[in-house]
Amino acid sequence: MINGAHVIIYSQDAVADRAFFRDVLGYPHVDAGDGWLIFKLPPAEVAVHPSDGPSHELLLMCDDVQATVDELTANGMEFIEPVTTVGWGAKAVLRLPGGGSLGLYEPRHDVAYEL
């Protein structure tokens, strides 16, 4: 039986992005060896959206996206997309230290992670 999910973020600077998850977000982690950190994530859910081609997106969920943006900005994070309202909630996108991006959103729909 499937008992979890493992998310991989590919990065041009994995050390910096690992430091972000460890130091800025404060996520608990294990060291799989040689500084290869694997982080415990908050509860999760998966949605399947229509698309013209295969793609994946990682969004971290929060209760108040604007307050979270303000807090992360105060910790030096850069947002490349401001908070915008979308049909299913409010969303912003931050720039990871390694150059990638990460979505942050406040759902305005029933959430599955509480099931």
TrEMBL record:
Key words, A-Z: Dioxygenase, Oxidoreductase
Taxonomy, superkingdom: Bacteria
One protein family per Pfam: Glyoxalase
Domain VOC, first and last residues per copy: 3-107
Entry keyword annotation includes Oxidoreductase: yes
MF annotations from Gene Ontology: dioxygenase activity
Coiled-coil ranges from the UniProt annotation: none
Name used for this protein in its record: Extradiol dioxygenase
